[in-house]
């Protein structure tokens, strides 16, 4: 088998496995399969492999963590043209680059960023969808607003007319203790319910982006609408994830 066809087979096989896992989790949770959207987490993955994986998807969706990778890959991703979400820590001086490629920023976690985002959107006569990222595991190494401050942040961001809040995003605790992982996702749902109860004008809470390669079943059981999967499709990454998650916290 050539190297190329081996890679293809692996990707196709991995996608099949992921789709089965999603389906089974939906059955267990008594949810419709189409309530859960798969997002390919494509950090460090080259365009050729991303395209092959996207071609296997009905509604191609991918997420990048780094502005630099987004800028490299964005112009090359033409067929099929995926929806692109930004899922990494966003520095405000890089906003304009992200706006060129992403239809949703899942990682808005502070008011100062939202303010600069609104300014840039006004300048460009644009709008954007966002999710508010919550640090449901309370780990220092992770970005995201503290759960206790999340509702307040949503309320404040809702005043920016070019930013459309669609829901919440979180990264669950990395742990073999499923109850602790589940507690993170339940925390996100609790915040979703609090926000809904406040009936904040212009705020939608339909999306819960939670669950990754290791914990997507738990996330789906708890109500995830977007799961973000990298390793289980593309294989292990070369860099430790800390490189992507806490660049300015080290
Ligand atoms: C890398 C990454 C994922 C995917 O993680 P895997 O464990 O490889 O599936 C999901 N969300 C974010 C924010 C990521 O950075």
UniProtKB/TrEMBL annotation:
Domain of life assignment: Bacteria
Cofactor section: pyridoxal 5'-phosphate
A GO molecular function held by the record: pyridoxal phosphate binding
N6-(pyridoxal phosphate)lysine: modified positions: 43
Keywords linked to the UniProt accession: Pyridoxal phosphate
Cited SUPFAM superfamilies: PLP-binding barrel (SSF51419)
Statement: the UniProt record of this protein carries the keyword Cytoplasm: no
CDD domains named among the record's database cross-references: PLPDE_III_YBL036c_like (cd00635)
Domain Alanine racemase N-terminal: 38-237
Family of this protein: Belongs to the pyridoxal phosphate-binding protein YggS/PROSC family.
UniProt-recorded name of the protein: Pyridoxal phosphate homeostasis protein
Taxonomic source organism: Marinicella pacifica
Origin organism lineage: Bacteria, Pseudomonadati, Pseudomonadota, Gammaproteobacteria, Lysobacterales
């Amino acid at each position: 088998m050539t190297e190329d066809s081996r890679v293809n087979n692996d990707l196709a096989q991995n996608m099949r496995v992921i789709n089965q896992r999603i389906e089974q989790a939906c059955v267990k949770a008594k949810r419709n399969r189409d309530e859960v959207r798969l997002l390919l987490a494509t950090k460090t993955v080259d365009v050729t492999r991303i395209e092959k994986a996207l071609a296997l998807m009905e509604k191609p969706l991918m997420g990048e963590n780094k502005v630099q990778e987004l800028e490299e890959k964005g112009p090359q991703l033409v067929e099929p043209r995926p929806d692109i979400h930004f899922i990494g820590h966003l520095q405000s001086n890089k906003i304009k680059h992200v706006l060129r490629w992403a239809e949703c920023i899942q990682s808005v976690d502070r008011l100062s960023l939202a303010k600069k985002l609104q300014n840039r959107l006004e300048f460009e006569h644009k709008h954007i969808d966002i999710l508010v990222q919550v640090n449901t595991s309370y780990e220092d190494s992770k970005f995201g607003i503290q759960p206790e401050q999340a509702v307040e942040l949503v309320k404040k961001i809702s005043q920016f007319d070019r930013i459309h809040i669609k829901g919440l995003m979180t990264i669950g605790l990395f742990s073999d203790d499923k109850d602790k992982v589940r507690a993170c996702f339940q925390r996100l749902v609790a915040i979703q319910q609090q926000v809904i109860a406040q009936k904040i004008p212009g705020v939608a809470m339909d999306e819960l982006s939670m669950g990754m390669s290791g914990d997507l079943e738990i996330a789906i059981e708890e109500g995830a609408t977007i799961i973000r999967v990298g390793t289980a499709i593309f294989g292990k990454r070369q860099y430790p994830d800390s490189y992507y998650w806490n660049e300015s916290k080290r």
